[in-house]
Design a protein that fits this description.
The protein is α+β, with helices and mostly antiparallel strands. The protein contains 16 helices and 11 strands. A hairpin with a 4-residue loop joins strand 3 (140-147) and strand 4. It is globular and about 65 Å long.
Length: 364
């Protein structure tokens, strides 16, 4: 208990910020349950009289809370948006809207970080280095550059101080998850969700690991002329700097540009579906964040995957079980579907199997 209290007061400022943001968006009633009431400041009076039956849905207010609390909580929301086993559909839909865009950090900070990590002046390594980033996200931002060799590259630079920020937030999330688990039923463990998130975030913060993910993906698709990933320049890559081949293409977020260039979108869709199935069922190694912003069409008929901060791995046993599930769906066999789901550990012990069979029968 004393260790628990020391941790809480060590991060007093951040706990207070979380409590006030929750109160601001209509979740003041949860502060006592989460043990956060003691951290609320005088602004609580301003927010405590807000009617809980606000026209703004709870799902939307939850998204606003996560957005306001910053990068760690935004990424948590993105993870939760994939967990339909934990949240209702309206929450899933709302959290799927969370964007990773955050304010850019200044070029002088980028320059200092690159020079410190690579151990040389920027001008000694690059002929050009764009001051304005191509993209800015919670973990880092990406700048276009040209190496002295003439190679066109993008340089992903980790956001300064992000490790310290996430360490504090993860510690707080474990604390809050334990409290939620004590009040909730036994079907789900919020602590396990935080553990999954913690592992995912630590992988994403190591750019060397991301570079290795890219290499693995490239090796898996080395004989495929339609699937591509950027080449990693290891000479200028560290745990906080990732230098990769610059790719010229059209992101799948721009379908109107695909139409203008007369790109065959049906062929692209087939290639993408085929690539995802091969990653899951053949390679057991897959890009775990393949949203349209991380996919682009290059050279008119190739799909390039970018941003490999998050990947998934499936061993042969799990791949076999997923195959059995798919076969059960194809054969419209309720019993095979249930057997496959149970083998994957995806059904809580309290499940009503009679109701489950009835629900699956309706879907057949």
């Amino acid at each position: 208990m004393q260790l628990h209290l020391r941790k809480r007061y060590k991060h007093f400022k951040r706990y207070r910020e979380i409590a006030n943001v929750m109160a601001k968006h209509g979740f003041g009633h949860m502060l006592n349950q989460l043990g956060l009431a003691e951290f609320i400041n005088t602004t609580w009076n301003k927010y405590s009289h807000k009617p809980e039956s606000s026209a703004t849905s709870k799902a939307r207010r939850l998204r606003l809370v996560l957005e306001e609390l910053g990068p760690t909580f935004i990424k948590l929301g993105q993870l939760l948006s994939t967990r339909s086993d934990l949240l209702a559909a309206d929450y899933i839909d709302e959290l799927a809207k969370l964007q990773d865009e955050v304010p850019r950090f200044p070029f002088h900070t980028v320059k200092e970080s690159v020079q410190m990590e690579l151990g040389d002046n920027l001008d000694h390594i690059f002929t050009t280095f764009a001051k304005d980033p191509l993209a800015a996200a919670s973990i880092g931002q990406v700048h276009r550059a040209t190496l002295k060799t003439g190679e066109q590259v993008v340089v992903k630079v980790q956001r300064p101080g992000i490790n310290a920020t996430t360490e504090v937030d993860i510690e707080i999330l474990y604390d809050l998850a334990a409290l939620v688990d004590r009040h909730a039923g036994e079907n789900y463990s919020v602590v396990e969700v935080v553990e999954e998130f913690d592992h995912m975030l630590r992988e994403e913060l190591d750019f060397t690991r991301e570079g290795k993910h890219i290499e693995t993906f490239r090796q898996n698709f080395a004989n495929d002329s339609h699937i591509y990933a950027p080449n990693v320049n290891w000479e200028y890559t560290t745990g906080k700097i990732l230098t990769m081949e610059y790719l010229e293409g059209i992101k799948l977020t721009k379908p109107e540009l695909l139409d203008r260039e007369k790109i065959d979108k049906k062929a692209i869709a087939r290639q993408l579906a085929d690539a995802m199935l091969r990653q899951i069922f053949m390679h057991g190694f897959f890009h775990a964040d393949p949203h349209p912003g991380n996919l682009m069409v290059v050279q008119r008929d190739k799909i390039a995957f970018i941003d490999f901060g998050i990947v998934g791995r499936l061993d042969e046993d799990v791949r076999d079980k997923i195959t059995n599930l798919v076969l059960g769906l194809v054969n419209r066999s309720t019993q095979d579907i249930i057997r496959a789901i149970v083998s994957l550990g995806a059904i809580p012990g309290s499940t009503d199997f009679t109701s489950l069979r009835r629900d699956i029968d309706r879907l057949r």
